[in-house]
């Protein structure tokens, strides 16, 4: 060999794809010198870091971009007085810790509260809403200390019982003045530890512009539809009472309703009525029909059960009917607000919207991919733009939320509203609204359900009276 060295290199094997590796790999090179003139072989080892597959995996992940969807054409009734409302379930720190199985695929760094609170505030301040409705808040003062410096005031209502989270409402002090606020403790009605908030605001630049904003986090349990329905019923009844008290002011209802767009509860909200005997109490919320593995982006409306009355009634006990409607004799339930969904009111791509116009998904973790968050509004307001959700295929690529710049397992919903009526028109319509509601209720009555429908109307008024009598308990005035 004439003294020449024969160099043989042996390389350690490593996976061809970085996605299967979750730690640093080291590239090992063994060099063996086989020289004729040397009595023994000399072996040296070189070790150097080859690559970081976790970093490569992160770099290949999608970016979440939220875009505003504008109304197709300006409404002739748009007064020009606009304001933005954001609803956001921020994932309580305690809930995240207690249900870590829902986030087993999420890096622990993404779950850290100190990081998440900064991202939450950054996202909110980036949107710049005039009114913010938050759910699952268990570190209110952490958030408020940041938001207060940016010109926000706020109120907080913690859940009853052993729960440490609650609902919070924040508003820009240079945009709105708080006229009245109430908190509802559903436990006072035997409806678990959930809470809701109601606030009446007045625009700073025009005191004739007033709006009532409601914020709710409905019970999660998918099987207790009667409790979910009762919580929504009570909130809407009280919202209507306060709206009328302040001169028929328009209403915005925000929150996590823990109910899908295909559900009976959604139907109750959007159509103002529900015959509960047509639906299975255990699936009023529709949550059991929505799973990440089965989700295909195509949804169909939930159909009522079509079987004999005897079997239908067997799905509901007298106690469950009483919980849901407030009376054992009422099965046709109604509410006085004519609610419309801000997202369903503005058209968007089928990549982000379902059959009824709602986002395909507002929440994503290992056991759920679907929509449970909404922004509702009444006459006197029109949505001029909404913050669209990401396409469903992009959400799937994240593997679940929280993710990068998204601090919760829910997506924030945002809507810009415009007032459509003058103050004098609102006052004129206050009387007309009451008369119209009574006429429409009579039209919906059928001979077989007339007694139940009448009882339902009486029950709605009873709720208002009960709420007023318990002013000292619930903070109602």
Q: What is this structure's SSE topology?
A:
Elements: E1 7-11, E2 25-33, E3 42-51, H1 53-59, E4 68-70, E5 82-89, H2 93-98, H3 108-111, H4 113-127, E6 131-137, H5 140-149, E7 152-158, E8 166-172, E9 176-185, E10 195-203, E11 210-217, H6 225-245, E12 251-256, H7 264-271, E13 273-275, H8 309-314, H9 318-325, E14 332-334, E15 340-341, H10 342-345, E16 363-365, E17 368-370, E18 373-377, E19 381-387, H11 392-398, E20 413-419, H12 423-444, H13 450-469, H14 471-474
Brief overview, please?
GO terms for molecular function: 3'-5'-RNA exonuclease activity. The protein has 477 residues and is of the alpha+beta class.
Question: How would you explain this protein's 3D organization?
Answer:
Helix 4 runs parallel beside helix 5, helix 6 runs parallel beside helix 9 (318-325) and helix 6 (225-245) packs across helix 13 (450-469). The longest helix is centred in the C-terminal third of the chain and has 22 residues, at 423-444. Strand 10 and strand 11 (210-217) form a beta hairpin. This protein has a 7-stranded mixed sheet. Strands 9-10-11-12-18-15 form a 6-stranded mixed sheet. It has 477 residues and is an alpha+beta fold. It has helices at 53-59, 93-98, 108-111, 113-127, 140-149, 225-245, 264-271, 309-314, 318-325, 342-345, 392-398, 423-444, 450-469, 471-474; strands at 7-11, 25-33, 42-51, 68-70, 82-89, 131-137, 152-158, 166-172, 176-185, 195-203, 210-217, 251-256, 273-275, 332-334, 340-341, 363-365, 368-370, 373-377, 381-387, 413-419. Helices cover 30% and strands 26% of the residues. 40% of the residues are buried. The protein folds into 2 domains: 7-54, no CATH class; 79-470, Endonuclease/exonuclease/phosphatase (Deoxyribonuclease I, Chain A, 4-Layer Sandwich). It contains 14 helices and 20 strands. It is globular, with a radius of gyration of 28 Å. This is Endonuclease/exonuclease/phosphatase domain-containing protein. Residues 86-410 form the Endonuclease/exonuclease/phosphatase domain. It comes from Protea cynaroides.
